[in-house]
Amino acid sequence: MKNSSHNIRLSVTEQQNYEILNILNEYHPDIYFSRHPGTTVWAIKQGIPALCVNDEYMIFGYRGTLNFAYSVLDTINNRSFEKNLASRVKLPYTDWWYEQNNSTFLKKGMVI
After folding, report:
1. Residue-wise DSSP of 54-73
2. Which of 46, 52, 77, 88 is deepest in the core (most CB within 10 A)?
3. What's the whole-number average pLDDT of the chain?
4. pTM
């Protein structure tokens, strides 16, 4: 078996829109997965395909995994909605915000 390395970037946030937009702008992912449908709109407005996974248990098992794979494939292949929306929407964040580190305004020393 050939040994290959992949560069996969992953970010897990508290679902704060200001963090999400900053992260999406920096990494330009191929797809954005969310557990809350309200956050997918921010990715779509940036032209990034988004898939909301409300119930992670629906993707278990053979049929669930296959259905999830088809959903991912459909989301990545049909990009016309995201491209059209992104070209017509002006987001509320400035270039200054996108230049900031996404954790700039988090309080130091907070432990959950």
Report:
1. S-GGGG-HHHHHHHHHHHHH
2. 46
3. 83
4. 0.76
